[in-house]
Fold:
Amino acid sequence: MFLNKLDSLGISVKAAAIASAPNDLFAILNRWMHNPAAIDAVYLPALIALQANAYEEYYQLPGLAASAIKAEYLQTARDLYLNKITWEQAQPKLPKRLNDLLQSDFIIASSIGDTRFYRIVQDSQDYRWRSATPLHTYYGDIDEVVPSYIATLPVQYQEIMGGATVTAIDAGNLANHRGTFVYGVADQKKWFDQLIAK
Structure:
């Protein structure tokens, strides 16, 4: 999003890199809800608990958390959001699977995406513009949060748009979400140093 802002201001950027980025929040939420995988992070229910409460407050969506989260988990979700409890205290009180946390109507509504919440989420993508900046995007084979097909969305999109080259780099078959980030930071430093040396 920062690169998008710089591009929109006409500020030239020589190169950029992102590691394991959830480039399309709407797509990744739908993947988590409609196509859960055994690899999914145990903290996904906490992420959505925080998101529902935050969007309710900051986007002025009264009742969003209650419409999204099942009643038996609502107070724990709210306490986590307000920092009254830690993740370690919330984890045993929340379900392990995201689908078990959420109201079925909330999940069903995501398929069409025609509620104010889902329209806001659809606008939370960070790759759908024609970029002039070469980009490296990193993904890991065992990333428990961002699947490779989400992390690499900018590659084909920039090809379609005739934008700058986006290179997808596999951090390896042992790279989880954190490992992908660490690998990406080290690798992009090498790339940036090479560009400075030219």
